[in-house]
Amino acid sequence: MAGAGENIDPEAFSSIPPELQEELKAALEKGDLVAAVSKAQEVLCSADKVDLNIAITGITGSGKSSFVNAMRGVEDGDKDAAATGVTETTSKPARFPHPQYPNVIFWDLPGIGTQTFQADTYLQQVSFDRYDFFIIISGTRFREYDIKLAREIQRLGKCFYFVRSKKPSASRPLQYAEDVILNKIRDNCMENLQKGKVDFRQVFLVSNWCTSKYDFPRLQETLVHELPSYKRLAFLRSLPNLAKEILEEKKKYLMKQVWLTSLASLGASALPLPGFSTVCDVALLMSALKQYCQDFGLDSNSLEKIASLTNKPVEELRAVIKSPLAHEITKDLVIKLLSKTVGGGVKYTLLFKNILPVVRPVIGSVVSGTISCATSYILLKGFLNAVADDAMSVLEKALEGGGGATTARISTSARLAQSVEHGTLNPRVVGSSPTLGECFSSLFPLPFP
C-alpha cells in the first residue's frame, strides 16, 4: 500500500524490542493484515519474556536485603523474602524474582569490603555482565568501597544509583522540618561522594519501611525513565501501587500498547460477536483485562497485602472499586462489554482515523476489520482508564487519615512491640497509628552520620 508508512507514529513502537520493530513496521506498511496481526501477537508475548536483572549491592549491614524485599513488595521474614541481618547473610549472588512478574529479577549481592569480596575483584566475582544496572546502598555514609565500586561500574559502561537507606532506630522528638532533615542528610552523602571524585547525579534517600515516602517514588520513576524503552513495562508492572506517580506512569505506558492488543485481537482465534459485524479474540481480550487488574493491584491477593501493610480492612478498599476484580473477568463479561461498546452507536469508520492511525493502513479498507479493531481499542482503553482510576481510589483510601502506619511496611502491633523491646522504635507508636512525623523521626534520627 503506497504511502502507508506515512501514517505510522514512531512513538507507537517505542515499547517494542528493537528486533521486532522493523518486522512489524514492514507488515503494517505493506498492508499485510495476517502478518501484522501475527507480529502484534508475538510482540505482546515477548513483553512477558523480557528479563530485567537488577543488582543490589553495598557494604555489609547496609540494608540490601530489606531493600530487595521492599522492591518486591514482600515483608522481611516472609517465606520468599531475602534473609536480613546485621551480619552478612549473603555469600553469593542470591536471585529473587518478583512474586507476580518473574521476569523481573532482583539480585542480592554479597556485601563488598569483606575479606572474601574486595573492590578490585568484586564485579568479576558477582558476574557483572548479568545485570542491567546496579543500586549501591549505604545505611550511613558512602565509604571508600562504595566509591571504588561505582567507578568500576561506570568504567565498564553500566549505570549505578546511590541509595541512602535507613533502618528504624531509636527515635528522638522531631525538632526540625522533614525537608530540612532530608536535605541535610542528602547534602552530607553528596559531599562525601564528591570528595571521592565519583561521577554521579543524585542520591536517593529512602526507607525500606516507608516505600511511598521520601525519595522512594522518585527512585522508581528515575529507573523507569532511564531503562531502555522496551524494558520499562516489565519494571513498571513490578512496582508496588503505593505512589500516585507510579500509578500514573503505569497508565501512561500501558496506554501505548492498547493499539497492539487491539490489532492482535483480530487473529486466527477471533470469532464473530453474536448480532454484530464484529470479530474479536475474546480469550485474548479477557487475558488483557485481567492483566490490567493485576498491574494495578485490583486482585484479591494485592488488596489483602495493601490492607495488611496499611492497617485498613480489605472491605474498605474493595468498597471504592467500581471495576471488576481480576478473578471476575470472564468470557461472558468480555462479550457483554464488547456488545455495549458496539451498541454505543459510534461511527467507527470515522473515529478509526483518529484513534488508530498506526493500524489503519492494514485494515482501513476492510469495514468489518475497522469496526472490530476499533471496538477492541475502545473497550481496552476504557477499561484501562477505569482500573487506573480505581487503583488511585484504593491508594487514597489506604492513605486516608495521614498516619504513618498507612505507609510503613511495619504493619502489625506484634512487630511494633518487638521493635520497642529491642529499642529500635518509638514506643509512642504502639497501640495507635504513628504520625508521619514520628515515622520520619524514627527512621532518620539526628544527628546524622
TrEMBL record:
GO terms for cellular component: lipid droplet; membrane; sperm mitochondrial sheath. Residues 50-226 form the IRG-type G domain. GO terms for molecular function: GTP binding; hydrolase activity. Gene3D superfamilies: P-loop containing nucleotide triphosphate hydrolases. Pfam families: IIGP. Keywords: GTP-binding, Hydrolase, Nucleotide-binding. The keyword GTP-binding applies. Belongs to the TRAFAC class dynamin-like GTPase superfamily. IRG family. This is Immunity related GTPase cinema. It comes from Crocodylus porosus. The lineage of its organism: Eukaryota, Metazoa, Chordata, Craniata, Vertebrata. The gene is IRGC.
